[in-house]
Specification:
By secondary structure, this protein is α/β, with parallel strands linked by helices. It has 9 helices and 12 strands. The chain has helices at residues 22-35, 43-52, 90-100, 102-106, 119-128, 141-147, 183-200, 218-232, 266-275; strands spanning 2-3, 5-8, 39-40, 63-70, 79-81, 85-87, 111-115, 150-154, 208-210, 236-238, 245-246, 257-258. The strands form 4 sheets. Strands 2, 3, 4, 7, 8 and 12 form a 6-stranded parallel sheet that branches. The radius of gyration is 18 Å and the shape is globular.
Length: 276
Amino acid sequence: MNIPILTYHSMRIDGNDYAVNDHVAFREDLRAIAALGFAVTSLSDIVTRLSSRSASSEPAQKCVGFAFDDGPDFDFYDLPHPTWGMQRSMLNIMLDAMNASPAASVSPIHATSFVIVSPDARRQLDRTCMIGRDWWRDEWWTKAVHTGCLAIGSHSWDHNHPTLQDDGSGTRTKGTFAAIDTFDAAEYQIAQAANLLKRKAPNAGAALFAYPYGESSDYLVREYFPLHAERLGIQAAFGSDPSPVTDGCDRWRLPRYVFGRDWKSPEGLVRILREC
């Protein structure tokens, strides 16, 4: 198994060119991935293969996985950016690609949207990180799951975000998830998010966690998840080390490539795919 997971942030819209707009990049990347003969597999399937160690017995197949971080409405809805105009949602970009390709319609394109679970945190972040138009909702989560193309995973309770008011978590350092290094802090950020997500949007993606900022503490990787994941119903956690998922990866810190950091052009993506 040698599978790159490609990560996008649908709020990143600083123009309508590839390098500065994750929607534009995702649409072009889907074409490049298809042209190179890669199939798309779900993150849940990647984790299942890793856990069962069954990949070594399967025929070699070029695959990629997709992740969207933070879970704003841009993942699901076409929305009018106040400066750069109407933006096609990440889900609709996938549906467009499937409708344009008979081969893709046989094997659907799939992604996991890792969402900030706390409703209060999203309401605050909608004002501090977007433009206060209520574009960070959860009413679309179950609709997304029912499309069969978009799973909903956990990106923590509130991202330990520095713009939020005191959350009562006891975490003094904001703006980094490496600061989540005690049982109480982990329960606040991970356990309560897992419980609410399973109630709001039961789906296979709820068993997946993505570390905010791509950061994790040794406590989370070596102690908290190994001891408590079964209780929480979590099967794997994803970081942001830029490498493919292989048989030897630690399932509590699976690697991902991030657009805008690890590649900024179609040529950059092709290099990553060829290396994998």
